[in-house]
Amino acid sequence: MNGDYMIFICYRKCSTCQKAKKHLLEMNVDFEERPIEMGVTQEELRKWIPLSKKEIHQFFNTSGKIYKSENFKEKLKLMTEDEKIKALSENGMLVKRPLLVGDDFVLVGYKKEQYDEIGEKYGKKQ
């Protein structure tokens, strides 16, 4: 990836993802969209988690059906990091979204202020 290439990983039916995408488009930020249904690989997660400066558990979509139905709240307490990465890579719907991935950063979820900073840094001026 070069400096202004980004991957935007989202779930198209998610209103937060739609808001985040609209924000990027309004700021003229170039990105490649990837539906979360395509998933993420273990290799990507191993690279992205440290870049995000977040703990691995923050990559889990805690409001998702699978997270709740399979009791991940309790399971995560007993899982190793490798098991958590494997679970996230095997089911994209477990992954918190949107994810915005650049060369030197990963944003997990949508916060307007963070996206404003990305727009300032990477947006194309009209």
Q: What do these coordinates show?
A:
The protein has 126 residues and is of the alpha+beta class. The chain has a single domain (7-122), classed as Glutaredoxin. 44% of the residues lie in helices and 11% in strands. Strands 2-1-3-4 form a four-stranded mixed beta sheet. α1 links the parallel β1 and β2 (32-35). The radius of gyration is 15 Å and the shape is globular.
Please specify the SSE layout and strand pairing.
Blueprint: E1 7-10, H1 15-26, E2 32-35, H2 42-52, H3 65-69, H4 72-78, H5 81-90, E3 99-101, E4 106-108, H6 112-122
Parallel strand pairs: 1-2
Antiparallel strand pairs: 1-3, 3-4
Mean pLDDT: 94
**Main β-sheet: number of strands, strand sense, barrel status?**
4 strands, mixed
Count of all domains: 1
Beta-strand percentage?
5-15%
Q: Biggest sheet, strands in spatial order?
A: 2-1-3-4
Low-confidence stretches: none
Whole-angstrom Rg = 15 Å
Summed up:
The protein is an alpha+beta fold. The protein is built from six helices and four strands.
Give a quick set of tags describing it.
single chain; 126 residues; alpha+beta; Glutaredoxin; four-stranded mixed beta sheet; 6 helices; 4 strands
